[in-house]
Amino acid sequence: MSAPHEPTAPFAKMNGLGNEIIVADMRGGTARVSSGAAIALAGDPATHFDQIMAIHDAETPGTDYFIRILNADGSAAGACGNGMRCVVEALAAENGRSSFTFETQSGILTAEVRGDGLIAVDMGAPRFGWQDIPLAEEFRDTRAIELQIGPIDAPVLHSPSVASMGNPHAVFWVDEDVWSYALDRFGPLLENHPLFPERANITIAQVQSPERLVIRTWERGAGLTRACGSAACAALACAARTGRTERTATVVAPGGELLVEWRTDDHVILTGPAEWEFSGRFDPATGAWERADAEAVAS
Ligand SMILES: N[C@@H](CCC[C@H](N)C(=O)O)C(=O)O
């Protein structure tokens, strides 16, 4: 670990159901976390993360903070449900508040700490138009688009539903156990398929009952993760839209269970836990970092 250059910013290493998150406190200044810093932190096993959630001062009246989201490859993301829960957990520990209004690249969203300690994030409305996702060509019906992988006459995965939750998602429906698919091999090919001009998060989903979905996700810019909140929301919305499930279901990811509700007002509510691991300070330009003392706990 190299010595950070000044000025440094506080961060907390956290996780949302095993989705590895760094919450970076960038308030009170104009500095941003650079792509290079993100790549450096992701490449260090001690700080490896799937997303950085950078908390900035609010830009729009009526909002509390602006959240910038970076993937492990340094690219920007419009949404991160598990990361938003980590942000809420960190802010609630700091100021005792239980509800927040955030602005992100994809719009305004609200979140609250529930009485049982779980955190509910209003992820907004799913969008299904082909330009919204976006797709490179017109598909009038995005409940099942023409896309497959594997032998042409016996595809391994095919006909995904697609949706935007502020970020692009493709959901492939499977009958077999989700662990029987080589998502580490197919994920990168599908993420970068020419049909997705902004790449896409790739999920395989097995419907176990109208109230239970099992998913695995290859995340755009991060690879295989133990949970992806926006993918859980996209999978539930696509499942309900195609009559596969009810509008409320438990979505099971490798890291555990999330509750997803697609309300009648079109908003998707994602509920689950968030966990603090350790805190430190880092240089947002380079990613050089140091751990806080054992006594200096969550930021
Ligand atoms: N882990 C996230 C999604 C992260 C963003 C994604 N990789 C993208 O680039 O769109 C979640 O919990 O939603």
From TrEMBL:
Q: Main location per UniProt? A: cytoplasm
Q: Keyword Ribosomal protein: yes or no?
A: no
Catalytic residues at 80, 228
Q: Which GO terms describe its molecular function?
A: diaminopimelate epimerase activity
As for subcellular location, the record says: Cytoplasm
| This enzyme's EC code(s) | 5.1.1.7
Top-level taxonomic group: Bacteria
Keywords in alphabetical order, please.
Amino-acid biosynthesis, Cytoplasm, Isomerase, Lysine biosynthesis
**UniProt entry tagged with the keyword Isomerase:** yes
Query: Top EC class per UniProt?
Result: isomerase
- Tell me how this protein assembles: Homodimer.
Q: What's its job?
A: Catalyzes the stereoinversion of LL-2,6-diaminopimelate (L,L-DAP) to meso-diaminopimelate (meso-DAP), a precursor of L-lysine and an essential component of the bacterial peptidoglycan.
What is the similarity comment for this entry? Answer: Belongs to the diaminopimelate epimerase family.
Q: What is this protein called?
A: Diaminopimelate epimerase
Organism annotation: Mesorhizobium liriopis
